Q: What sequence folds into this?
C-alpha cells in the first residue's frame, strides 16, 4: 500500500514537472523569437557567421531551430534534477553516479521522443486525428513510458 501511494506521488510530481517544462520550453522559444533573435540579428548584422548560423531563414528557419535546441537543452537539464532529487528522492550527488543517470535519462529521452513522433505520425496521417489531439496523446504516452523507464532503470532505489 505504501509503495502504491509512493508511485502515485511520483507520477503526480513527474507529470506536473513535465507540464511545467513544456510551458518553460514554449516561453524560452517565444523569448528567443520576440526578444533574442531581433536583438542579435539587428546588432550583429554583417557578421557572416551569425547571419548564416543564427539569423538565416533560407533554406531553414535557423532562429527557430536554435531556439528549440536551447529550450530543449535547458528544460531537459532542469527536469533531470527535479526528477532525481524531488520525484525519485535520490540523495547521492557523486559525479560518476549522476553522469551515468544522466546518460540513461538522455537515452530514454531519445527513445521516447521517437515513440512520440511515431505515434503522432500514425495518428495524424493514418487516422486523420487533428494535430492538437495527436500531440496530446503522443506526449501523454511518451511521458508515461519515460516515467516507468526512469523509475525502473535510471533512478531505481537500492533495496536496503
A:
Amino acid at each position: 500500500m505504501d509503495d502504491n501511494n509512493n508511485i502515485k506521488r511520483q507520477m503526480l510530481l513527474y507529470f506536473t514537472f513535465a507540464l511545467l517544462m513544456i510551458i518553460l520550453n514554449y516561453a524560452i522559444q517565444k523569448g528567443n523569437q520576440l526578444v533574442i533573435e531581433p536583438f542579435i540579428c539587428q546588432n550583429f548584422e554583417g557578421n557572416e557567421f551569425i547571419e548564416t548560423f543564427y539569423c538565416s531563414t533560407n533554406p531553414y528557419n535557423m532562429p527557430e531551430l536554435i531556439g528549440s535546441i536551447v529550450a530543449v537543452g535547458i528544460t531537459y537539464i532542469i527536469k533531470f534534477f527535479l526528477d532525481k532529487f524531488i520525484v525519485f528522492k535520490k540523495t547521492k550527488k557523486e559525479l560518476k553516479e549522476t553522469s551515468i543517470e544522466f546518460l540513461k535519462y538522455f537515452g530514454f529521452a531519445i527513445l521516447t521522443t521517437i515513440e512520440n513522433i511515431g505515434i503522432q505520425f500514425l495518428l495524424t496521417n493514418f487516422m486523420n486525428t487533428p494535430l492538437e489531439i495527436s500531440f496530446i496523446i503522443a506526449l501523454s504516452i511518451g511521458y508515461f513510458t519515460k516515467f516507468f523507464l526512469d523509475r525502473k532503470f535510471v533512478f531505481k532505489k537500492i533495496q536496503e
Helices lie at 2-43, 48-55, 62-87, 95-126, 131-154. The chain has two domains: 1-89, 90-160. The two ends are 19 Å apart (CA to CA). Residues 1-89 form one domain.
